[in-house]
Design a protein that fits this description.
about 525 residues, alpha/beta, Rossmann fold, 60s Ribosomal Protein L30, Chain: A, 4 domains, 22 strands, about 25% strand, binds 1,4-dihydronicotinamide adenine dinucleotide, binds 2-oxoglutaric acid, D-isomer_DH_CS, D-isomer_DH_CS1, serine biosynthesis, D-3-phosphoglycerate dehydrogenase
């Protein structure tokens, strides 16, 4: 019988499902060393946010087939390490949506009517009605940053309560925002106009410290800020200062940069209106039952040799088909991620063109992998092989698929063209030798480069000196170039330059590159 380790508190209903097919051991509060020691015995691991599944644990997990996260965020699992070992990672993308949205609404109401402080005052023997005069939320402006699943539910309820809605989400279509009664605006406008601001976006390099001192300074002095998404999206020190200085009226936080929140965090010392909860967004009986069932069923299915319905890293395909298509799925995901960044946010359409040998294979998993890559910058771990098509449809992305078996430049190649806020861009890629990915064209300019974590693309006039100027400019910003290639169609026409660089582009450098004579456009990409 297979063995499952449950290393965080999980609802009994989940344990019952696992027990149908496996021996279940519940051992919570294990240290990292203890986990490394015992993990080799187990076929599956079920966790919440308390267990960090590091590379060391994955390396020791010689039998492990699946890691199940009873919740959404899989930021506590080393996904690349799991993928390399062929371990499926599953989550429950929707099981706690309502719980997190309702916690947000509760925070907003509690802030507007001073409920925690008033409660504390009555319990300590006082009867002070004047001090706790609140504000109504009716007709107030709610600014929603991140209009995905949780943000949408908050919008629906807040609208029913008579609030006016603004939203900032660079990856969402205007149509979807309109359906939810939200006016889609830029972040600056939302920050300046909203009476309540609520965050519902993932934490990514792009969103870390998104709400910082300059942004806080633009908020109304009567504004209140709520974060039930992820710690680190708000600069906590800047928030504490803004609250202390009376720059904004209040804040309610469920999540923190480091959890548990440090005992001496300045946030704990504030006397102004601050509500702090210990990451309770998903903590309802219903959500915990939902996520336990959702994830336990997937673990059971994988242990029975069936596909998982919400795999974050590996699609639920028949093993023989998966083996054959796996390198192409990786290619499609990489190209999808790349083309979405070149096309900018708010992609309206994606053209997937399967060429050569690839044109004769089953296309649907390749299209899904391309969509997963396309949405991965916006949705992070929320997008998987199961929901990528639905997410794309909900975002109003049109998918057009074409095949051409006659193109034989490489044994099989894939071209993705996306139209987004930065116009239409296309990338083509192929597999070389040992299934190594090569990007073989950008906007129809021929190149041959491997993808890298940090890349810089320019469109420029093909003329002497321009490559040297870009190289020197990068050098003056201390950016190390790992490789560089130029592709052109005609001599002294337009050309593209692709640079793989060792670090992210420093702030201000892209603007400097754009000023170089002959440069028409420049893009930086993180894969
Ligand atoms: N406090 C808690 O216990 C819980 C917290 N969460 C967190 O809530 C957050 C939202 O979850 P869902 O709504 O389910 O996710 P989702 O994936 O459905 O929606 C996220 C939205 O953020 C948008 N987005 C991405 N980058 C953005 C940017 N730079 N600026 C503005 N918008 C951006 C995306 O386009 C997407 O529409 C996640 O961080 C999740 O981890 C989720 C469940 C419970
Ligand atoms: O397991 C939990 O309670 C955390 C929930 C959460 O933050 C998530 O699902 O992303």
């Amino acid at each position: 019988m297979p063995k499952v380790l449950v290393s965080d508190p999980i609802e009994q209903v989940g344990i019952d499902i696992l027990s149908q097919v496996a021996q279940v051991d519940i051992q919570t509060n294990l240290s990292a060393e203890e986990l490394v020691r015992i993990i080799p015995e187990y076929d599956a691991l079920m966790i919440r946010s308390g267990t960090r599944v590091t590379q060391a644990i994955i390396q020791a997990a010689t039998q492990l087939k699946i890691i199940g996260r009873a919740g959404v965020g899989v930021d506590n699992v080393d996904i690349p390490a799991a993928t390399r070992r062929g371990i499926v990672v599953v989550n429950s993308p929707e099981g706690n949506t309502i719980a997190a949205a309702e916690h947000t609404l509760a925070m907003m109401m509690a802030l507007s009517r001073h409920i925690p402080e008033a409660n504390y005052s009555v319990k300590s023997g006082q009867w002070d009605r004047k001090r706790f005069t609140g504000v109504e939320i009716y007709k107030k402006v709610l600014g929603i940053v991140g209009l995905g699943k949780i943000g949408s539910h908050v919008a629906t309820v807040a609208r029913a309560m008579g609030m006016r809605l603004l939203a900032y989400d660079p990856y969402l279509s205007l149509d979807r925002a309109e359906q939810l009664g939200c006016r889609l605006v830029e972040l600056d406008l939302l920050i300046q106009e909203a009476d309540f601001i609520t965050l519902h976006l993932p934490k990514t390099p792009e969103t870390a410290n998104l709400i910082n001192a300059p942004i806080l300074a633009k908020m109304k002095p009567t504004a209140r800020l709520i974060n039930c998404a992820r710690g680190g999206i708000i600069d906590e020190a800047a928030l504490a200062e803004a609250l202390q200085a009376g720059q904004i009226a209040g804040a309610a936080l469920d999540v923190y940069d480091k959890e548990p929140l440090a005992a001496d965090s300045p946030l704990r010392q504030l006397s102004r209106e601050v509500i702090l909860t210990p990451h309770l967004g998903a903590s309802t009986e219903e959500a915990q039952v939902n996520v336990a069932i959702d994830v336990a069923e997937q673990i059971r299915d994988v242990l029975l040799g069936l596909p998982a319905r919400s795999a974050v890293n590996i699609p639920g395909l028949r093993p023989d088909l998966l083996e054959k298509l796996k390198p192409y799925l990786q290619l499609a995901e990489t190209l999808g991620n790349l083309v979405s960044q070149l096309a900018g946010g708010r992609v309206e359409s994606l053209k997937v063109s399967l060429q050569g040998e690839l044109a004769t294979s089953e296309s649907q998993p390749v299209v899904v992998a391309a969509l997963k890559g396309l949405l991965s910058h916006a949705l992070q771990e929320r997008v998987n092989y199961v929901n990528a098509s639905i997410e794309a449809k909900e975002r109003g992305i049109r998918v057009i698929e074409t095949r051409d078996a006659s193109i034989r430049d490489y044994s099989g190649s894939l071209q993705l063209s996306a139209t987004g806020s930065l116009g239409e861009h296309s990338v083509t890629g192929s597999l070389l030798g040992d299934n190594e990915i090569r990007i073989t064209s950008v906007d129809e300019f021929p190149i041959n480069v491997p993808p890298a974590r940090f890349m810089l693309f320019t469109l420029h006039r093909d003329m002497p000196g321009i490559i040297g100027k870009i190289g020197s400019l990068l050098g003056s910003f201390n950016v190390n170039i790992a490789s560089m290639q130029v592709g052109r169609k005609i001599v002294r026409g337009d050309a593209v330059m692709v640079l793989n660089i060792d670090d992210p582009l420093p702030e201000g450098l892209l603007e400097e590159i754009m000023k170089v004579p002959g440069i028409r456009d420049a893009y930086t990409v993180m894969l």
